[in-house]
Amino acid sequence: MTDITVQPSSFIERSLVLEENSAGLMTRANRLARILRSEKCFGAIKNAEWKGIRSKLNKGFPELAELNRDQKFESFQKSASSVMSELRHTYELFWDIAKHTIAHLELCRSMLSQIASWKFDECREPIRSFIMSFNSYCRLFFLVSRIEERKTLCCLFAAAYQCAKGSNEPRFSKLAKGSLQFFDEPVKILVEQFREYSQAFIEILMNCTPTLQLGCNGGIELLRRNALSITEDNLALGTPAATPFNRRDTAKSGRTLHIEILEIRTISDFTVFTTIACPAVLTNQMALATSKLACCDALVLSLFRGTSLNIHAELEALGKWYPPRHLAKNWPKEIKLAKLFKDWAKDATISSGLAHRERRAYILSEMNIIDGLVAACPSLCAPKAPVILATIALAFDELRWVLRHSPTKGDALPPKNRLKHYVADQYLESQLVVLAGTACKLAARFARERATVAEYYSNYLTGCDANALQNLSTAAASRLPIDHLPRGLPDLVRRIAHLSETQISPKSCLEAYDKVLRDGIWTGGDYSPSAIANSPIAIARLDWKRLAAVICASAHAKGMLKDEAITLFLKRGHTAFIDRSRLADGSLFIQHCDPGSLWPFRNQLLKALDEAFTGKPASWPVAALTAIVAIARDAPRSLSHPSALEDGNELAVEARKLGEHAISSKLKDAVLASLKRLANNCTRLSEMIAPVQAAYRLERKELAAAEAEKKGGRRGSNAQASTAGEEMLAGEESLPANYKLVEPIAQAETRLAKLLVAARDELDAGIFLPKEQKGVVVSELRLRPLEFAKSAVLTFLQQQVPICFFDDSGKLLHRPTQIERSLDSIMAAAERAASYVDVDYCGYVASVLLDPGRTPPLNPVTAETEASPKKAATNEKQHAPIAESTAIFYVKLMKTLPTGVIFCASRGGFVRLGPAPIPEKNQSPTTTFEVEKYLSASEISALARVLGADGLRCLDESLNRAAVDEMAQIKRAACPPKDSKSARKQKMDKIRVGFLNGDWLNPALELKQEGVLDHLLKHTTRLGNILELKALLRSAGARASEKAAPHLARAAKLALDSSINGNKVSRAPDWLLAPADATYIGERDPSFGEDVIDASYARDDGLFHEAKPLLEAPDEFRYFPYVMAAALIADYWKGVKWLPDFNALDGIGLHVTSAAIRAIAFCFNGLPPDHLRAPAQAKALVARFVEAAAAIITWIRLHVDSKELGTGTEIPVRAVCVYLELVAKQAAIPRSTIEQYLPYAVIHSSLMDIAMGRHTAEDEKKTPFTAAAFDVFSGATEA
């Protein structure tokens, strides 16, 4: 059959227009299918009330059913206008499809009838145009057939039109009886439409076989021909890549290997569609072999975006009825299509997955080499452009193939009877993200060299190609027949052959490329008439395509194509106008190397990205991020169509979200996770190599070995000993045999480095933009990956610094040594990150730890930082939240200090006496067994180093407030009311007057019975603990400051020691020096002989000013020394022992009341702290306590058995004597003050009794003193 409806001169224009129209219709159809599957489905389809109406319309199709008798007709009639408005675009879509398929079929038939030769060497461009038109026609047919509601939608619109307008819709009858029925059985319709063109299809398939062999069978032919290598000949790296496709015809063939590689997928899809639409081609053995090659290469074929066609399901369905009866007589009996197609399906299921896996492995290895060479020498992009484009195109084709065939996609699975041959792992790619990332990165590198490539190939066109074509065109024009139509063909040949620099220049090539990038493929490329009209190179290419179509489809074509002059002209013209011109203007790169084609599979790549962060090599997350960013950037350009603006807008919004998600979320999360992993591994290793941990491991080793020996086995033979023996001592991890201990740190550091380098040198450096620009532009949104990487570092610090201080609840503080190790690890990780990105991590940490009025910037867009509202609203001094939380924790700790935890000056901290109690369920460890872990010397030193000066100042202020709270309770107990006639004041006055003669006892017992004395001791002890912690923190801070800034500390000390201003004593700035290093000049007090005031009374302005409101009268605390002395008979003193080893009292640690008494004397002596007599006045108040207490304890010792004393035998007289000496010594009270009431011999004998274990009178009665107590060697002599 000959169909000449379309003339050859219109083949190219018609094919371009129909290709663009087909893409628009498929975009609209795909959006319609998506809407029908979503929650936004049309109300006319979702309305359950109209279910009966829809059923009647479907049953009456293709006629429009009468709906008058339906119960819900009135409801439908009322909504007719809204239904019409809702379904109008859908109805127009199906009408446009009906018109388009007629024109498209007409073009395909005309080309099949009129193209005289199907040899690619001479008629490559007309054949290529036909193949693409045929593919798009079949794709549209199958895609529309997937819309199952098409009849219902059209019938609903026609019925609504009839109800609203009162007449039938004029196009419905033709539409319903035409194309809408064709789509019910698309395969049968296609077979019928192309039944008479089998011979033409056979010739095409025979010429497609060499190209198919390149890509099928796992890429064996590619490997055999070394098609993707550019390093085979190092001396030829600078020469252009122009490997002939046919090695036997190197001199005359116009086809090159790498350009043919770009067409592999197009020809493979054409072969599959041909097998389905024209199965008669299988009667030819060569065509049969070609069809098998393509059909066994895949399980599914791409229709549009993410929609696929199951190849073997369609073929097996075809084999059940083809050939029909009227063709069965002429069908070869040896070809059984049903069995043949089943065998093909089985072969494809078994072998296609493995074949493509081998092909991907080869492509990835070669692409890595090319990427390295291009990165090192970008100028290679110009001469080696065909090789690079072929490699990228094959990589993207394999990515689409493996993503289409993913086992998670239901349409890629074979039927149940073939699942036994299906191995899911063969259709998975372990290095999916690596392949995608490398392909996108190489494509971006090539795109950045567009100017070089355009200049290179435009010079080729205007140089040697123009000269060759002018010579060839003269000979070809002279050989054209005289009666050839059109008449001006020879002149057209001569005009086209004249390629000038003004017509084809690098500038025009780049303008054409930029227009495609700006407007998209369908608006700014070769499918747009306006784009072609504005591009000289596109006009020249279109003219050549018309010329080739006229020559190849003319009446004289068979004769002309035998003429060598004409065929040489056509071959060279194809090479110049099609291959090199498309390389020059970038259209070849945009068509075949577009990351946007992976958009339908973005969710699979996001899942692969998440998996890349767990146990995968460090380069994988970078590759995945690169791929996703490239996809989001290019998808709107490559997939948006001007006929579906809503779809384009939705695509742009989704692409923008994906780009933001990849950069702002995934990249940031990846950097954050790498920093956390690095910090955690550093912390774990620092804990492991700590000396104390090494000692613990050695102890566990020895215990395990001893336990094994005790059980009768060999030393270290049992499992416990073996397990303990695996633990290493500090330093062993650095040995070569134990490198695995530091390997996690190296891996985390490598992963972090790759992420940050990628963010800085690839993503942010403009790998996806021209060289002078930075960042990534997605749907007009410019993203700066480097800024988000910096934000990740700051977020890491913001999250981890508080975490290393407190647990998840935010209430329990970690041990300061643990905090210090964690903070060191965090800073080490941040320092490593700062070596790749410019981020002020030290200043940020300082702001987190020190600055309360500044919120560090976390938004990469905002660089400014506003002052804290809290700081602006008040003039009170503030501190960082972490310092304040730490201070709250320690204040609570001191207020809930359990019995058995006491302050020990010799050990520089607090210690626990005896084993720690077992905590009850849900009981906080801060109130039970871990208190001493926060108050030891090493922990306090670590706390000072961690908090720094500002943190210690905050902690000191909080402890001052807590101390004043305790002072308020002390005042409540030891200071009588203002009423002079109050009973308590009278009792205290009696104690003050009668502490020398025993008149103090009765009022003291009454106060004890009222609970005053125990209350006083409780809060005085708590105050003493707080003050001792203050002193420890001050000393630790001084040591830290001296180490950090020794010259500053010495300068402050010099200024402190030498500066006197009037009657006020100057002092150094807070926390620069330990209190013991300060020297104050005081006035001699005659009452204490020649003793001078020493550093024990160094003033504490903060504590004084905090406590100042408590003092309402200068002599308000005059009774305190005497009540405190009378408190020696309180219950808190019962059973208390003096511990010589600790130089402290056990129980609640009453020895710290010495510090409390001095502080009260300092704060409430009636003079300001900077007064010269303030220290002497404070010392006098302490001396009164020492005098009264010495007199009272002497009276108790003399009347220990007195009935008046009651529980005198339980009072630890000996411990009190030692305690009083401690108070006097710490307060610089002369010993003569004590000896007036308590001879030193008593103190000495008390120490002797304590050494022999007699702490109370009861103990002395149980073990009376004898001379044998001094004979410590008596047992050894008797032995």
Can you walk me through this structure?
This protein is an all-alpha fold and 1279 residues long. Helix content is 62%, strand content 2%. The protein has 55 helices and ten strands. The strands form five sheets. A two-stranded antiparallel sheet has the order 1-2. Strand 9 and strand 10 form a beta hairpin. It is elongated, with a radius of gyration of 47 Å. It starts with 10 loop residues before the first helix and ends with a helix.
**How large is the count of helical segments?**
55
Percent of residues in helices comes to 55-70%
Distance between the termini: 133 Å
The biggest sheet amounts to: 2 strands, antiparallel
Shape: elongated
Mean pLDDT across the residues is 82
Q: Helix/strand/pairing class, anyone?
A: mainly alpha
Low-confidence regions: 715-725, 854-875, 1060-1097, 1272-1279
Number of beta-strand segments? 10
Measured on Cα atoms, how large is the radius of gyration?
47 Å
* Major sheet: arrangement of strands: 1-2
Percent of residues in beta strands? under 5%
